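seq as requested:
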Amino acid sequence: MKDKHLTTNQGVPVTDNQNSLTVGERGPVLLQDVHLIEKLAHFDRERIPERVVHARGAGAHGYFQVYKSMAKYTCAKIFQDPAKQTPVFVRFSTVVGARGSADTVRDPRGFAVKFYTEDGNYDLVGNNLPVFFIRDAIKFPDMVHAFKPAPDTNIPTSSSANSRFWDFISLTPESIHMITWLFSDRGTVKSYRKMEGFGVNTYTWVNAEGKAIYVKYHWKPKTGIETIDRHEASRLAGEDPDIATRDLYDTIASGGTAEFELNIQMMEIADELKQRFDPLDPTKTWPEDKFPLMPVGKMVLNRNPENYFAEVEQAAFCPASIVPGIEFSADKLLQGRVFSYADTQRYRVGTNYLQLPINRPLVPVNNNQRDGDMQYGPYGGGTVNYEPNTLAGGIPNEAPLTGTPAVYHVEDNIVRKKITLTDDYTQAGERYRSLSKMDQDHLVDNIVDSLGKADKPIQQRMVDHFTKADPEFGKRVARGLKL
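struct tokens:
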């Protein structure tokens, strides 16, 4: 079986399954990467009708209000007028579990915000942890396959199939930083109102003059952060598996609110290669002492959905939904997400999913996309469904430009290559050493409890990784595993 090599669905040999095709090692991802597109498109269609990831969720309506104009950094209208309240819908979720899973299981939480702005919808799709397992979207299907129930037994990795999860992690050292977050008590929550949110990826803000700057998003809960240990998480999973969903709903139903403050970190694009890490690598955080948090505005959730299926279940988010003044970076994970999320929704909900009330922009939609399943848009236009035209007086025509777009120069060889300005262990070790004694104890205990169910060679690989992050960290895990 040693000659059983990876191939595409066409049978073409795959010589690099770790890196997307980019312009240079750090450049944007190319649409001509047929292997990446095939993997993501197939992955997006693997489950119906439940979401492949983020199946278990809760949601609420509310508004966002900026503190002061951010025109110096972005021309996005949502960040200009302190007197304006922009409607939002937020969906909190667990990533791996099915719709019937418990709210308290160890898992990253989705934190997705849909802003209904005057320039169309803006989706900020993030998690409650600041980093991620992988840095290239080409690995996303493999990652989720490893975390989901085994294909032969359907046993989830959270029970007796731990070897699948830890096998993937042990062979993907870029995940070690995420493990230090996920297996701390940050990985188990019982209230969506009391957890942070992060954009994870790096985005670009552009002002009216065309000046661009990198940003990272942080949501801070006004009530503070509350976590639980794995013992309470296990107890609640049996006694009250819907506790986070109920807490959010009951708080709002009783007249309360869930409030978060939006903060950003900013970095000059000219400074990105001056760091000792790659700022576009989603397995990394930006040090706050060097890139301090700037408060931007507040979000208040104050209205519950009236119909869970119509609003929470059919809500569709996509990082590709941006507005003028906000652009993408060349983050390889983000570049894949820009394609994959919308593709998933077209398959899961339908071609015209954006016509559903929960997803529909509050501003008029004018284009020539007429057909597809579930089409019911109020389109006139008579015989014309193309542009340019004269038969309909040239309508709809191209919109005037808002501000001056940022100009990016991209020139390099087309390659599949791992970024070199990176290191898998430094920030993981720093994260471990930053924890209190109690939090370190919980982190080690949680890892030993889960990793102890994996095969011995996998345990040893993980201990080697933890040791490279911090010798004491590795020694304590090894002692717990009796290696």
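The first helix runs from residue 34 to 44.
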